[in-house]
Amino acid sequence: MNIGVGAQIGRIGGGVTTLDNPAGTTGFAPRFAFGLSRLNLLGLGQTVGVQTAISTIEQRAALTYFIPHFVSNDKLNFTATALVDNSNDIRTFTAHRLEGSLQLGERLSRAYTMQFRFVFRHVTLSNLKIEQLLVPLLSQPETVGLAEFSLIQDKRDDPTDAHRGVYTTLDLGYAPRVLGSQTEFARGLFRNATYYQLGRDLVFARSTQFGVITRTGGRPSIPLAERIYSGGSTSIRAFPDFQAGPRDRTTGFPIGGNAMFINNTELRFPLYGDNLGGVLFHDAGNVYSSLGDMSFRFRQENLQDFNYMVQSVGFGLRYRTPIGPFRVDLSVSPDAPRFFGLKGTEQDYLNGTAVPTVQKINAFQFHISLGQAF
């Protein structure tokens, strides 16, 4: 049995019905977790467990059945998962998700792992904070049947705090109608990170991510809940969580994109004793409307332009703990996006009394978390 108590602190605040702060305000979300697992089920070395998490922005319960040596093969493992999740971590909507998945993993070598997954989920959205004319189209319940493949290369010396090595992942997925998807789409995500130890105390770390999703049939657009979202403590620290990329042109809330490029670099160094360290970092990237709209220019052309590369530089502190470093990052962005938004509630918008206003992503961001950014 495991019990956890914690909190999320960041720009996650803002009222449920207000449209005033599409980029969030400083908020505090208490979080409670409870899990119960049965190890060595029936004496077969298999595990069944339930994990739950409850906070003001997410309620989740997952039931998992894990077979570490599938069909008596030491290199194969099998996982079956059932998930119920309600979340509004993407402030544009509240997502209600029912999901089941089956995964077969194969350890090819000490450094390489391959995974095959089938995922079936049904997602409904509520509390959409977008232009009212788009709500009937984008708020429809969506069923997705997804076949996925992952290849993982892990040559890090320490997965929780790497000083040397390489970490690469390739994730490919296809959601065809034959698997039950109402919108047919394909997507891919590639990530590569390298770590170099410079002398005795310095570590230079780099991470590059590229992702794309494209519709191949069915409904006329990629569902809101399936689009690419990014920004936050493990991606582009110029943004609060999931705030990068295209935004609704009326309300200013994020609506996700169809392509992503992110590059992070860090110089990690000791500050005091063996446990306290510092980081200088630079992040660059964004989520883009489409692959064809991807651009590496550094300046926003107008208040409806989100297809440019946002930059941030900053300083962070790392305090070593048994479960990985406790992390605080302070970021400044010279080209944070500006955009059109509204002042008022959703009812004010329906009544035509909400006030149009120019808003922006705060140039200063802070992130508090556990573990390195990558």
Q: How does the helix and strand content classify structurally?
A: mainly beta
Query: What do the pLDDT scores average to?
Result: 94
Low-pLDDT stretches are none
Strand content range: over 45%
Q: How does the overall form come out from the CA principal axes? A: globular
Count of helical segments? 2
Provide a descriptive summary of the structure in words.
Helix content is 3%, strand content 56%. By secondary structure, the protein is an all-beta fold. The longest helix has 6 residues, at 346-351. The model has no long low-confidence stretch (mean pLDDT 94).
Features:
374 residues; mainly beta; two-stranded antiparallel sheet; 2 helices; globular
What's the topology here?
Blueprint: E1 2-13, E2 25-41, E3 46-55, E4 58-67, E5 76-87, E6 94-107, E7 112-126, H1 135-138, E8 142-154, E9 165-175, E10 183-198, E11 202-218, E12 259-272, E13 276-288, E14 310-319, E15 326-332, E16 338-343, H2 346-351, E17 355-360, E18 364-370
Antiparallel strand pairs: 1-2, 2-3, 3-4, 4-5, 5-6, 6-7, 7-8, 8-9, 9-10, 10-11, 11-12, 12-13, 13-14, 14-15, 15-18, 16-17
